[in-house]
């Protein structure tokens, strides 16, 4: 019987990891199955563009994994039994010997009344299309309120304002807009908001969302035919419900090889994992973190199954790249303590850089076995049992 590796999720972390495992492990010993609810790889970092009215290239997962030996199962994960080593799907059950959990995250409504029922978000393709339909239905002068001053909120507000200049776009920020950026980058951000006509309401906490308005903690009423919620991310509760050790946020607690501290047959990558970076701080939920944690997890799985040294990719966070529409952006470097450095890139050059990064990430996902060696590693133990290896 072959060793069964199941990867849950085919986002930036899951799709890369499945391809990397297929590239480096011998198919005579291994069976890799990817479970994903959608048939396409979704460029989550471009979903604000989709919501604003732009069309994105379709990337069918069947094409992504064609010729790799990876099995694709289109299903929704309902639960995990970590004792029986099975995953319950909406179309049946799937057993595993090694599980890589990469289900990512969704929007965090923070328990704000009406946010889940009346607000829109851009953390999934269906959600982005729902917002797009709503924006299509607004008349000239329709009001859009983006709640949240993080990366998602800034990108959503600027993309909508640029793509739909007939709408009145505003952003509600709990603190100061761009407070975490360097002074020069902050000034550029404000100029971009002024250029696009985006009204900014700083030090504003939205405590209720209604169908045509949002209400602040001080009672201020913001008229809004489309409220876009970007108050942060939350992981799916499946990991916590399964009995895996998780943090208070529901992220899986792992060792430095992305292996669950409570269940050694389970690894995690992407937004679902509580990974501590080289600076001693938890990695933020991001595409970059998905790449680094995915590389470390797959390196550990390959090392332990084949008896080879476990490779150790550095877990670092270099900075933020922020789109301000299609022709403007900011690239902000951070130091080892995750504080903004004085150096930053802005304008068209930063926009081209971000577009290049996203195109490169999408290309990597679409070519998971690029450079696949002619000879792949055999398992060091009988199929169905995990071998141990030395951690680098």
TrEMBL record:
Oxidoreductase among keywords: yes
Entry-linked InterPro entries: FAD/NAD-bd_sf, FAD/NAD-binding_dom, NADH-Q_oxidoreductase
Span of domain FAD/NAD(P)-binding: 4-285
Record key words, sorted: FAD, Flavoprotein, Oxidoreductase
Gene Ontology molecular-function annotations: NAD(P)H dehydrogenase (quinone) activity
Pfam families registered for this protein in UniProt: Pyr_redox_2
Signal sequence residues: none
Domain of life: Bacteria
Required cofactor(s): FAD
UniProt-listed GO biological process terms: aerobic electron transport chain
Keyword Oxidoreductase tagged: yes
PANTHER family associated with the record: 64 KDA MITOCHONDRIAL NADH DEHYDROGENASE (EUROFUNG), APOPTOSIS-INDUCING FACTOR 1
The family this protein is said to belong to: Belongs to the NADH dehydrogenase family.
Protein name (record): NADH dehydrogenase FAD-containing subunit
């Amino acid at each position: 019987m072959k060793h069964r590796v199941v990867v849950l999720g085919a986002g930036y972390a899951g799709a890369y990891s499945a391809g990397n495992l297929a590239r480096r492990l011998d198919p005579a010993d291994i069976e890799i199955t990817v479970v994903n609810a959608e048939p396409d790889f979704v460029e989550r970092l471009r979903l604000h563009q989709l919501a604003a009215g732009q069309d994105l290239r379709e990337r069918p997962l069947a094409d992504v994994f064609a010729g790799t030996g990876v099995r694709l199962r289109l299903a929704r994960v309902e639960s995990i039994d970590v004792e029986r080593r099975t995953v319950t799907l909406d179309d049946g059950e799937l057993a595993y010997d090694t599980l890589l959990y990469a289900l990512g995250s969704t929007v965090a409504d923070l328990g704000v009344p009406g946010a889940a029922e009346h607000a829109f978000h851009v953390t999934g393709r269906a959600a982005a299309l729902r917002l797009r339909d709503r924006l299509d239905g607004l008349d000239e002068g329709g009001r859009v309120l983006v709640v949240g001053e993080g990366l998602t909120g800034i990108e959503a507000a600027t993309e909508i304002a640029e793509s739909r200049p007939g709408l009145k776009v505003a952003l509600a920020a709990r603190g100061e807009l761009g407070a975490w950026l360097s002074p020069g980058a902050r000034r550029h951000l404000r100029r971009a908001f002024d250029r696009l006509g985006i009204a900014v309401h700083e030090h504003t906490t939205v405590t209720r969302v209604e169908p045509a308005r949002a209400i602040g903690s001080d009672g201020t009423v913001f008229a809004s035919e489309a409220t876009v919620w970007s108050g942060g991310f939350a992981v799916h509760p499946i990991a916590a419900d399964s009995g895996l050790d998780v943090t208070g946020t529901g992220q899986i607690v792992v060792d430095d090889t992305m292996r669950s501290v409570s269940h050694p047959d389970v690894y995690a990558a992407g937004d679902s994992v509580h990974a501590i970076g080289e600076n001693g701080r938890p990695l933020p939920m991001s595409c970059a973190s998905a790449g680094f944690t995915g590389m470390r997890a797959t390196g550990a799985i390959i090392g332990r199954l084949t008896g080879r040294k476990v490779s150790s990719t550095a877990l670092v966070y270099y900075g933020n790249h922020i789109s301000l529409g299609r022709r403007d952006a900011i690239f902000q470097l951070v130091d080892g303590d995750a504080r903004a450095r004085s150096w930053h890139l802005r304008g068209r050059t930063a926009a081209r850089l971000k577009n290049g990064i996203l195109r490169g990430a999408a290309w990597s996902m679409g070519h998971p076995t690029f450079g696949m060696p002619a000879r792949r590693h055999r398992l060091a133990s009988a199929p169905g049992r995990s071998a141990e290896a030395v951690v680098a």
